[in-house]
Design goal:
Elements lengths: L1 H7 L10 H29 L2 H30 L8 H39 L7 H26 L3 H25 L3 H23 L6 H10 L1 H17 L4 H9 L1 H68 L1 H9 L7 H16 L1 H9 L3 H22 L3 H30 L4
Length: 434
């Protein structure tokens, strides 16, 4: 019982009375990354052949898939673990242990992608149509270690209450990524060259974070103990990542490519590029509000937690609704500006996807409540239902192209939102995990 209560205490460090400035820096963090991703995709989309653009879009989707396991096994247990009772030196040692655990996990994930790519290439000898998937898997393995290093570094800075340094790391990430996106087509006009942008971006963001936190030398026994303390929670969350990856806005491009090929993946990547800032806004708010939700539970119980989650939900309605509404109204001109008429004619797809992304963004507050209450099994159940429904609707919608598949995503997300609302009420009424 004491262990369970300790797990629910929020991480110490940031002063949440300065929530406004922390959120501002978090918006700079996600804004810089979001703008850099849009500009990088715009530059690459103008110069790469359509199939190669689809390949790099799929590779980034693959990265987000494996990053979900890193988030489940490392990030979420890390950011919700209390360290306020430790001295400054002990706290630094503890954060360093988590850092080295993150390094091990990221390398394991990259190695798994390389092995999977090898398996796909063997399968392609019998079924050549699968051959296109090998390169995105290898490129996903290439970008995974630097991007996850940058992610763990920013989480460490957030736990130290240094959202200002997170913003600085994000600016470095954005600048390096854009340099890579400019250089890449001059070097080689294919997906391999395009991956340079994400490698440089991740390395730059990680370098700034590491310069600020200076991890202690690794003690592998302690790093493994970090995982062991939360293994049940982390394993359940890792399981939830599998169905989540099927319908997540970042990774569903992989499924679309499997169903309808690399050209459909390219069109979806173009449409997602102009809607993606809404997801970045959610990530910015979530970076601050998830630890704040844990603190609300510790200080005021489930009622305080639900009030905090409700406030986050209305904030996301305003922020994401404003952006996605603007995208829907100006889809045609926006696509022309971003891709220089390369992807003209997909305004309808963008509008339907904007609706799907809006519903997807509104799921985050309910998921926060379930995670803070350690209701990972309930979250797993809702995600499984949504994943099965998403696959069915994507297959049904594929006959109508990307627009039909985007409509399928919107329907699946509407159902998911209803399921999460019911799950939130049920778990909150119980007052604990399930």
């Amino acid at each position: 019982m004491a262990e369970a209560m300790a797990a629910r205490r929020p991480a110490q460090g940031p002063d949440w009375r300065r929530l406004g400035s922390a959120r501002l820096y978090a918006l700079v963090d996600q804004g810089a990354q979001g703008v850099a991703n849009i500009l990088a995709m715009a530059l690459l989309g103008r110069h790469l052949p359509v199939a190669q653009f689809g390949a790099i879009g799929t590779a980034i989707g693959i990265y987000y898939f494996v990053a979900g396991f890193h988030r489940s096994g490392v990030v979420l247990p890390y950011i919700t673990e209390a360290d306020g009772a430790l001295s400054r030196a002990e706290r630094h040692r503890e954060h360093s242990d988590w850092w080295w655990l993150s390094v091990v996990v990221s390398l394991m994930l990259a190695a798994a992608l390389v092995l999977l790519a090898g398996g796909v290439m063997l399968v392609a000898r019998v079924w050549p149509a699968w051959g296109w998937a090998g390169m995105p898997l290898l490129l996903g393995a290439l970008v995974t270690p630097p991007l996850l290093a940058a992610e763990q570094g920013r989480r460490w800075l957030y736990k130290r209450g240094r959202a200002d340094l997170v913003a600085l790391a994000a600016v470095a990430y954005a600048g390096a990524m854009l340099v890579g996106a400019v250089i890449a087509p001059m070097w080689r006009s294919d997906a391999q060259g395009a991956a340079l942008a994400w490698v440089l971006g991740g390395a730059a963001g990680a370098a700034v974070a590491l310069a600020a936190v200076a991890p202690a030398a690794p003690v592998w026994r302690r790093s493994l103990a970090c995982f062991a303390r939360h293994r049940r929670f982390a394993l359940w969350l890792s399981l939830t990542n599998i169905p989540y990856a099927i319908y997540s806005s970042a990774t569903v491009v992989v499924l679309i490519g499997v169903i309808d090929g690399p050209l459909a993946a390219a069109v979806f990547t173009a449409a997602r590029t102009v809607t993606n800032p809404a997801v970045s806004l959610v990530s910015a708010v979530d970076s601050i509000d998830k630890p704040r939700a844990a603190q609300a539970l510790a200080s005021g119980g489930v009622a305080a937690l639900r009030r905090t989650v409700a406030g986050t939900r209305w904030l996301l309605v305003a922020l994401t609704g404003a952006w996605l509404g603007g995208v829907a109204l100006g889809a045609g001109p926006l696509l022309d500006v971003v891709f220089h008429h390369r992807y003209a004619g997909i305004s309808g797809e963008v509008r339907v996807l904007a609706l799907a992304i809006f519903l997807f963004c509104l799921n985050q507050p309910s998921e926060t409540l379930l995670i803070v209450l350690r209701a990972s099994a309930t979250l797993f159940a809702t995600r499984c239902v949504t994943a099965v429904l998403t696959v069915a609707l994507l297959v049904l919608g594929s006959g109508h192209g990307v627009a039909g598949m985007a409509a399928g995503l919107a329907i699946a997300q509407a159902v998911n939102l209803a399921l999460l609302y019911l799950a939130e009420r049920w778990v909150a009424a119980k007052g604990g995990g399930a």
